[in-house]
Amino acid sequence: xxxxxxxxxxxxxxxxxxxxxxxxxxxxxxxxxxxxxxxxxxxxxxxxxxxxxxxxxxxxxxxxxxxxxxxxxxxxxxxxxxxxxxxxxxxxxxxxxxxxxxxxxxxxxxxxxxxxxxxxxxxxxxxxxxxxxxxxxxxxxxxxxxxxxxxxxxxxxxxxxxxxxxxxxxxxxxxxxxxxxxxxxxxxxxxxxxxxxxxxxxxxxxxxxxxxxxxxxxxxxxxxxxxxxxxxxxxxxx
Length: 238
Known about the structure:
This protein is α/β, with parallel strands linked by helices. The model is unreliable at 1-5 (pLDDT under 50). It has helices at 46-54, 91-101, 106-119, 135-147, 165-180, 192-198, 216-221, 226-232; strands at 5-17, 20-30, 35-39, 61-68, 77-80, 153-157, 184-188, 201-206, 209-215. β8 and β9 form a beta hairpin. The strands form two sheets. A six-stranded mixed β-sheet has the order 5-6-7-3-8-9, sandwiched between helices. It has a three-stranded antiparallel β-sheet with strand order 2-1-4. 35% of the residues lie in helices and 27% in strands. It is globular.
């Protein structure tokens, strides 16, 4: 997969809810290719930030601008929620759904779905009702559904919350493989160990403000703010 994505920019973006600013103002550039981890304590604005980038949340002011390689190209995106969306159909049909919406040839769509069932380790559960899956299996299904269209970028909102170690490791391996295939990953997490394992760069939010955006190594070894330093020591909870 060759990404069509070039940097996106947040220009003076703010998000308000019930008259209160919950995010921003933010000026920021999303770089291509690297694995971006969004960090911050509870209530920092991580979910709102991801939803804003994906277009699920509209800014009160400012704008998010996606740049493209040519007028005929667009940035294909997917979003994986913390609580997976489970449709009332089989595991196979949940994963195949984005292809059916795009009118992909039926035989080809089933071929691609079987590939992803194998890739996420759900081949033996393909005909089961998706509602019967465990939490970890549901996240694998949601991830396969997000990746089956080979998007340029995938946003993930704390997808490994409440998963066991084995399920977390499996999802991380799938994400790293997708990145190597050319998919840009932007993921919010509360897990500092996970951030250290995965991040190329880190976006650190606190109370709706973008405090730092730097390489993973710089963020963890030499944080540039007292807030980030306290967070990496586990001392900043809100």
